[in-house]
Amino acid sequence: MAAALDPFLDQVTALLPALRAFGRSLCGDPARADDLVQDTVLKAWTNRQQFQSGSNLKAWLFTILRNCYYSELRHRKFEIEDPEGICAAQMSVAPEHDAKLHLRDLNRALQQLPNDQREALVLVCATGLSYEEAADVCQVAVGTIKSRIARARDRLVEILGDDATEAVAPRSMIESRPDIDSGSTRRRTIS
Amino acid sequence: MAPRCDSKLRFVIRARVPARVLSIGTDMSEKMQPDQAIPSGESAPDQVPEWLGNRLRRMFNDVMDEPVPDEFKALLRQLEDKERGS
Questions:
Q1: pLDDT values of chain B reduced to their tens digit, one per residue, 86 residues
Q2: Where are the alpha helices (DSSP H) in A113-177?
Q3: Inter-chain contact B18–A13, Cβ cutoff 8 Å?
Q4: ipTM of the complex
Q5: Which strand (E) or helix (H) includes residue B70?
Q6: Residue A183 has pLDDT above 70, yes or no
Q7: How close A62 comes to chain B (CA, Å)?
Q8: What CATH number does the domain containing A139 carry?
Q9: DSSP classification of residue A48
Q10: A177 and A128 inside one domain
Q11: Which position among A103, A107, B77, B82 has the lowest Cβ density within 10 Å, counted as fewest Cβ atoms?
């Protein structure tokens, strides 16, 4: 079927699923992610001379997609504030499963992270890029990637924490923590 | 393995010291050579608790498993044709 595709395009084709997944975890919106992937493919094709064969095409394409994402963000600054809406639209498929619920929650939580933390976490922990590759894609030091992942993790654990094993999230436990909060308030009142 | 990890995390959250306790893992991994510690292609880090890593990968793989829309094949075909034509 895909008979005589150019070898470069052939490789790009093989990476389309990964690009779509990366795009979706960046922006949280399937349709927008696919637009990003299209832009990425076009840019990659136009600049294919710049790609050194033998180096990591996946990381190269991720870099392009990431650039597309950020340049698009700059053009639509006001639309990034609605993670709930975006995620609701995205996960409209059969949410009755615990697993699906978990993924929807994760998606929503991911969209609450700052961009730099989200991309670092996704690149290393979801796409399977190494720390070095992720650092290349984001054009920062490996240590920066690590600390961004650490911050992303802390935030996600905070958001999803008690929900990690259960389908129903006992949100009140995360938000109020009466034992600790009341204690510190009392102390402050006394002193 | 997984339950142990979860119960530890819960303790951490209730005790409200997530940053300090969890960063122990970070410090350790930072001392290791990342390229030795993490075989490329596998998902890394002990930096991230197992349940979270699994969930992130599942999220990613779910999309990976979706069939690629035809418009992409059409686009690639178009690029290929244009190249041949010129």
A1: 444 444 434 333 333 333 333 333 333 333 333 333 444 444 456 789 999 999 999 999 999 999 999 999 999 999 988 888 76
A2: 115-121, 131-138, 142-160, 171-175
A3: no
A4: 0.73
A5: helix B70-85
A6: no
A7: 14
A8: 1.10.10.10
A9: G
A10: yes
A11: B82
